[in-house]
Protein: Prenyltransferase and squalene oxidase repeat-containing protein
Organism: Geodermatophilus obscurus
Amino acid sequence: MRRTVASIAAEQGADGSLPWFRGGQLDPWDSVEAAMALDVGGEHERAVAAYRWLAGRQRPDGSWAAEYRGGAETSPAVESNHAGYLAVGVWHSWLTTRDEAVVSGLWPVVRRGLDLVVRMQLDSGAVGWAMRPDGTPDDTALLTGNASLFQALRCGIALAGLAGEPQPDWELAVTGLGTALRTDPAAFADRSRYSMDWYYPVLAGAVTGEAARARLAADWDRFVVPGLGTRCVADHPWVTGAETCELALALVVAGQPEAAREQVAAMQHLRHDDGSYWTGLVYADDARWPVERPTWTAAAVVLAVDALAGTGPASGLFADPAALPAPGTVDTPGSAAPLPGRGQP
């Protein structure tokens, strides 16, 4: 794991940017995931630098570009999952370091991002995947992105409690979103051929208990290739490391840690000598594809192992989403006072 974390750190830019690989594209969601892995590995200053890089590029409306290269926007689209995911990273940072200065500095950025997410919520309770040029949300909602936003809103509510700034609109939004994820499949575009739509509602904590186990069992044979890992897409002979480890996280949430360990073990054929991981394997051709080792694949491995080990201070965030505190119950250690500097723009 130390080598894997070092492989992520080696791709980070001097300005704190954390792309897929040095010189490659950067998107906010995957950058946050990689930063969380750095925190797991004790590289706290690097993780904070990645979050501050994102903070410096947030637009006034709370959004980020969907893609950056060399610090410049290369895909200016506004996507809801990118706007929300920093909340997960900052709550993970708090659990890991208890650094009040970092959280108070990033809280306004998280708040703007989640306020945008709430503005993009549709009547169904689902959140539109993108913002149209006229400032209205697209009426297409993606299940995986919405599950991620369910987790992000819950982390944001926890941060709001820490900051002493309750956000009732977020609480209403996450309630409606959770109901849609559990009961209204028609609210989301049909992308059921993708494994992420299968397991992500479990990973994010929207579907739990026996319902979670039943959901994972229902499509197990459709997506899992014994001894190799998890298909990204049901109808392609392609297993991918990130999806396999995310499935492992979902299995931990569902109370099936042994099955999770089997999945993490199965994907180790993607490990490179330096601790990084190839994206995937087209097993029908015994060929790695694409031929790249992105930081987010390595990060998914680190987060899965941390959740399984249960030793990291933030491991419970992915191992037990139900452990997120109820709104209004979070205090700084030894004090009921809100974080210093809260609410600064």
